[in-house]
Amino acid sequence: MRFNSLLILYFLLISVATQATEIPSQEKISAVSQNPYWKRLLHYRKNWFGVDKSEADGLDFFLSPHGKTDPKAELQSDLDAFQNPNSTPVGPLKQHAQCAFPERYRFLKNILALTFSEPPCDDFNTWKNRFKARSVTLIYAAAYFGSPSSMFGHTFLRIDSAPREGQKQKNDLLDYGISFDAVMGPNHDFAYPLRGLLGLYPGMYSQMPYYLKINTYSNMDSRDLWEYQVNLTPEQIDRLLNHIWEMGTTHFDYYFFNRNCSYQLLTLFEVANPEWNLKNQFDVKAIPVDTIRSLLQQNQAIRSIHYRPSLLHTLENRLALMDESELARFHITKNNIALIQESDTAKTLDALMDWQKYEALENSFSVEEAERKIDFRLLQLRAKKPNTQENFSELSLETPLGNSLESSTTAKVPLRPDLGHLSSKFSSFIESEAHVGAFGFELRPGFHDLLDPDEGFLPDSALNIGRVRGSVLLDETKTARLDELLIGEVVSYQPFTRLKKYLSWQVSGGLYRPVETSCTACVAEYLQGGAGVTLGTTKASLSVLFTGHTEFSNTFNDVIGLNYRVGPGTLLLGLFKISENLKILGSLEHIRYFPGPDQHYLSKAELALSYHFMPFDLRLQADSFASPQQNIEAINLSLGFWY
Amino acid sequence: MRLFLIGLMITGFTTSAFANSAGCGLGSLIFTKDTIMSQTLAETFNGSFLTQFFGITSGTSNCSAHGFAFQEKEAAMYAEANMPSLKVEMARGQGENLTAFSQLMGCNDVSAFSQMIKSKYQNIFPTNDVDAEQMLNHLKSEIQSDASLNQSCHLAS
After folding, report:
1. A246-263 pLDDT tens trace
2. What is the mean pLDDT of residues A344-360?
3. What is the Cα Rg of chain B in Å?
4. CB-based burial label for A451 (10 Å; 0-12, 13-18, 19+)
5. CA separation for the pair B148, A474 (Å, rounded)
6. β partners of residue A176
7. Rounded to an integer, what is the distance from CA A249 to the centroid of its chain?
């Protein structure tokens, strides 16, 4: 008894002693405020002018008025707030500072070896405990050309929960997803793409059930999902959740190219595992798939990878397992569902239900409306048939981390996006145009063109931003010329399938050198687009498009007395994948320009061949330009390098 | 015409505008009326029309707290958001959506649960207009009249 009292007294004294040292020295505070982890928590990063400041733009994130630029002032203010039980409540939830910034609190408490009286933090604890987090998965939603922002793909997080009570296995659908998105608010206008580029939208974190994410990406947009489980210890998961909670007090200006969804998620991983250095390589652009690669480059950062096919791909997998007569029945009844019969097999009906669900979701305004569009008799007929073996909606393939993807099922699995060619490309070329030689370079910051290998990308598509191409003539003049400055190009030549009649389309704009004018230093601003159809397969296809062209250049004055020309055109384009390494593209285009003399036209023919040996490719391209003024032939040989 | 789900979180988690007793009135509100413009806007920059966010949603909705669905509303919310998939998988007698749903219904024997639904499909969906709330009610009474499921399912309310 007596001994116990002594012990208590002893601890009391100790605690009084530590209380007495509760105020850390200014030197200590200065040192800790320069700790890389502290700066990570505050999202500090040196900008292009060398100024070190926080990327967070919501001011509730800082307790010091100078917190955005002065990590020491912020540390001091945080410490004061943590120590004061009655400090000003933070953010919309009016939390005590310790509760609003649990990771900052944990870090400072440990590194400064301080003790604090701790408020209960009900909101934070309820939220965090509800996850029952066991692991964290980085999800990549494949590129989708239905909207400008989705073309580069998208990433978000899934917090993987423990199995629910009474369950042996957890169900991914019941996990929660965390994503960083631009928030556009109710008022938006036609300037939205510009705002997205200029960082005029705030970006914030949000949370929603994974099943809603699947509804959006897999079912409605038909995008495959790739699930990369990140290798984190329980302690690291804890830090990650702490920091996500801290994100609730702020926003970040959303820049589409470099401070986007994928970039911000990297901060969370850097906080979870301080040894990882992921963000710094992303300066002017952060393409989602590249941010996944940055994790894969870390030692054992990814534990496993799962593939979740989109609704359309699931349906294609079903069709691949049907016999001829079942397939025939599917295609007959798909467009006239009243023709289904008792004798149709379960497989046929399964495929029809997926098709109807896809169509319903595509053409409805609400879930209720979509649900009612699925044919009632079809559902009833199917309910009477026995279960089948294969279950593609549960197809979630674990893929090896290595290069190959050996699928144990018959389902078709595309190449993992991170194994596709890298995003940037540099090429040098020699060419001969109208019997004049030239030597030049091309820089393509992103992302993919028709002659690049398709694996890991949307097949039969191209997406390029900011491509520059220049050359120097190899004659006595040594003239340097700009061949192209592409602002943007999007091409989608998806072939018609029995399942779906895709529209083929393309649009591009920028500067180019109108070769047929023979003016070396001339460039024209242009904007062109076209729409049509593509027939064939992804191995060999032929596209026919009607195009429209608008061009501005003083060089046109010489021919038509005006500095602009517009015109409709017709484009015929063939794309052939001869082997894994060889692609051939042939195209013919005829454009009739207005205004101008009756015979103002341009005919272009192109044959290009691309041979890939990663990370290089060799291209040989022959072009012919025919106009009323003259005909010009050109041949070009280039060596490209992806990086 | 094209619809999208992006707006679900607004309706699910941040408004208190929910109509029926089963869930949160998700079904009628989930998709924003589609125009090319609104779709593009919503998906541009992976954005959404969210006006409030997890962490600051506490108490704003009777359906959720702290970004999570209330446990007792979870099955109803799930059913409303996933009706097209559930309707199909219930007829098929299997599927990932159905498995998740059986967990939310507290039924640990997924295959017994799925087979019962499939065999009682007519009772659960007597017409094509059955909504999530009605489906849940029909399903609950089928579970109650099934001796072994009634034993193995621990129905949340």
Report:
1. 998 888 888 888 888 899
2. 95
3. 17
4. buried
5. 87
6. A159, A209
7. 25
Cβ partners under 8 Å of residue B12, min gap 6: A208, A212, B24, B26, B61, B63, B64, B69, B77, B81
Q: What is the pLDDT of residue A182?
A: 81
Non-local (6+) Cβ contacts of A627 within 8 A are A516, A601, A602, A603
Beta strands in A55-184 (DSSP E): 133-141, 154-161, 176-182
Tokens 């030597």 correspond to: A439
Band of pLDDT at residue A538, cut at 50, 70 and 90 = confident
Could B9 and A206 be called an inter-chain contact, meaning their C-beta atoms sit closer than 8 Å?
yes
Indicate which of B45, B108, B142, B152 best probes the interface with A, i.e. most A CBs within 10 Å of its own CB.
Answer: B45
> How many A-B residue pairs are in contact by the CB < 8 A criterion?
242
Q: What is the mean pLDDT of residues A422-451?
A: 94
- Most A CBs within 10 A among B85, B97, B142, hence the mutation to make, goes to B85
Rounded distance between C-alpha atoms, residue A209 and residue A301, angstroms = 25
Beta strands in A251-311 (DSSP E): 252-254, 302-308
Instruction: Please tell me the total number of residues recorded for chain A in this structure.
Output: 643
Task: Name beta bridge partners: A583.
Answer: A577, A610
The DSSP letter of residue A167 is -
**What is the phi/psi pair of residue A262, to 5°?**
-75, -40
Contact B91 A147 (CB under 8 A): no
pLDDT in tens, A551-587: 999 888 877 788 899 999 999 999 999 998 999 999 9
Could you give the CA distance from residue A355 to residue A40 in angstroms, rounded to a whole number? 47
Instruction: Give the type of residue at A465.
Output: I
**Residue A220 one-letter amino acid:** M
Question: Domains of chain B: which residue ranges?
Answer: 8-70, 82-152
Ordered alpha helix ranges (H), A53-96:
71-83
**A344 residue type, one letter:** D
- Average pLDDT over every residue of A593-603: 81
- On whether the CB atoms of residues B104 and B73 are closer than 8 A, the answer is no
Residue A542 has pLDDT above 70, yes or no: yes
Nearest to A350 by CA among A324, A395, A314: A314
Provide the mean pLDDT of chain A. Answer: 88
Domains, chain A, ranges and CATH?
A: 21-118 (no CATH), 127-308 (no CATH), 322-389 (no CATH), 420-642 (2.40.160.40)
Are A417 and A153 contacting, i.e. CB atoms less than 8 angstroms apart?
yes
pLDDT at A448 over 90: yes
Q: Which residues of B touch A218 (CB under 8 A)?
A: none
Residues A30-78: tens digit of each pLDDT: 999 999 999 999 999 998 888 999 999 988 999 999 999 999 999 999 9
Contact A174 B3 (CB under 8 A): no
